[in-house]
Amino acid sequence: MPVIEVKNLRKRYGDTVAVRDVSFAVERGEIFGILGPNGAGKTTTVECVAGLRAPDGGTITVLDRPPRDPSLRREVGVQLQESQLPDKITVREALELYSAFYPAPADWRALAGTLGLAGDLRSRYAKLSGGRKQRLSIALALIGNPRIAILDELTTGLDPQARRETWDLIESIRDTGVTIVLVTHFMEEASRLCDRLAVIDRGEVVALDTPAGLVTAISAEQRIRFRPSVPVDDALLLSAPGVTAVRRHGEQLEVAGTGNLLHAVTSVLAAHQIIANDLRIEQASLDEAFVRLVGRD
Amino acid sequence: MFRKLTVTELKLLAREPMPAFFSLFFPTILVAILGSVPSFREPNAGLGGARVIDIYVGIAVALTLAMLGLQVTPLVLATYREKGILRRLATTPARPTLLLGAQLTAALLTAIVASGLAVAVGRIAFDVPLPSNFAGFVLAFLLAALGVFAIGLFVAAVAPSGKAGNSIGTLLFFPSMFFAGLWTPREVFPRALQRIGDFTPLGAGERALHDAMTGHWPSLLSATVLVGYLAVFGLGAARLFRWS
Question: Which 3 state secondary structure label does DSSP give A207?
Answer without folding.
Answer: strand
